[in-house]
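User: Batch of two.

Assistant: Item 1 of 2:
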Amino acid sequence: MTGNEIYADFADVYAKGSYTRHGREVAAKMPEVLGHLEHRPQKILDMCCGEGSFAVEMAKRGMRVTGVDASERMLEIANARALIAKVTDHVRFERRDVRVLRYDGEFDLATCWFDSLNYMLTTDDLGKAFGGAARALRPGAYLMFDMQTIHGLINHTRRHEHWIERDSDGIVDIHRAEYDEDTGIASLHITGFLHVGGGKWRRFDEVHRQRAYPEDTIARLLEESGFEVVQSSGNLDGLADLTMEIDRMWWVARRA
């Protein structure tokens, strides 16, 4: 297909690529992070769960996970991943827009990884996502997420104007990036070709748009949503301070 329905076709490319490593690596780090917080969640809300790598890994650790995502194809892949891992009794996936979540105090931890909140292109949308997370959490529970910084978004766009992300296993994946300084929005134009057999290929085009926000804006939106900021740092351990030169920031906030 063509147009701006993101992850309709790119979901399959994403699930077969190196992108899924992020979720698995974060899941492996969670016991240490949660131990540091002295927090032992039983029910997790994984916002923008994508193809389910993080949710499935946490389900393997015995936690009950609800993964939500707006992409129907991503959720199909996530359900298949849970079935293969034999954790369908510990994880469920639902098609939801994180800006209009309707959970009510059901979860001990909410997560949102790998730039997902950068897809919120206005402060209003980002605030709605934080508000939905706050309503979904019990008092004293935590929200954890990572976002690209303004520096990271600009740096990535200018460092990689266009490139071939993948050319193997029947997938050709071409990316072109641009940054609009007036709007602060980075656009990633993805053109993919999928081998469908018989010497034929199917083309798809998607445009992924992201925006980064200053640290004080994110902190303000969290506080307005009912959170107390516990940590904002250059890594999930909190060992590096957040500076203008860091490409990605990691946040931990506690529900009041």
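Item 2 of 2:
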Amino acid sequence: MHPIDTRQLRYVLMLAKHRSFRKAADALFITQPALTKSVKNLEEQLGVLLFDRKSQSVDPTPQCEVLLQHAGKIMRELDEIHHSLDALSDSLRGELRVGSGPIVARGPISDAVARLVSKHPKLSIRVAIDNWAGLVQQLRAGDLHLMVADIGGLEGQEDLETIPLAPIRSIAACRPGHPLLKHGIVTTADLPNYPLALPSLPRRWIEWLRDNAPPNTDPDAFVANACRVYCEDFGLLGKVVLHSDFITCGPEPILRDAIADGTLVEIDFPGFNDITVRPGIVYRRNTTLPPAGRVLIDQLLPDLAAAAAMKD
């Protein structure tokens, strides 16, 4: 029997994860025919069927499940080998897989990644953008080395290590000429008439809206009526707000440029402005980070120290 190529193992792991040749090929940055041929060659080499090809999905067979158990261990061991070798080198190389929430991606993580790759050009970095729940799932599956996202919902996760970063304040914004600018303020009582267009909100934002629903109003019905548009594309949210009476709320770095150039106008939202995004670095406890991961953390921590110094 010919030895199994580690590349084939990586392909099988990705196909089992996505259950689709097209999605797996996209994630691997290869063509679908190349992935199909590689999996078929491995099946012929092993003399077993690894995947049941169905019209809507590609499902691992029992034989594949056995292979997946060993493949995952092998790939983790290979990662450890690369990490140990990299630790002996002055120049970082290999691949660092980082997850980021859409909010943090426009803040500390983008600057830190830029500094890291400029200093270590041989290093390859993949940044996955997702909400914190999706990132945690990828982190626990070993698809990410670490993530940088809002950590407000991660209390009590004993398998995860967290390092808090500087909090980010929340602001509200609307279009120039918005009716509420005459008063210079927005309250929850205004939201039924001037609803919100928002990214996915941390739980504490939703809880604040529920707790501050107008009197004699069902809190859940109020939140559903007040939050009319949800989207992770901040460009789309900006256009909705610019061409309507919708209001948007979010972390200050997301809206900073649009407010600075006059596209949007910041408006006071008492109470909401006191809610902060709590970004942090998260990685699996008792897991060795690659040297590049440690360097990225060091790049992020000065931002925290600088913010603390300014606050003092």
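Residues 62-87 form the longest helix (26 residues).
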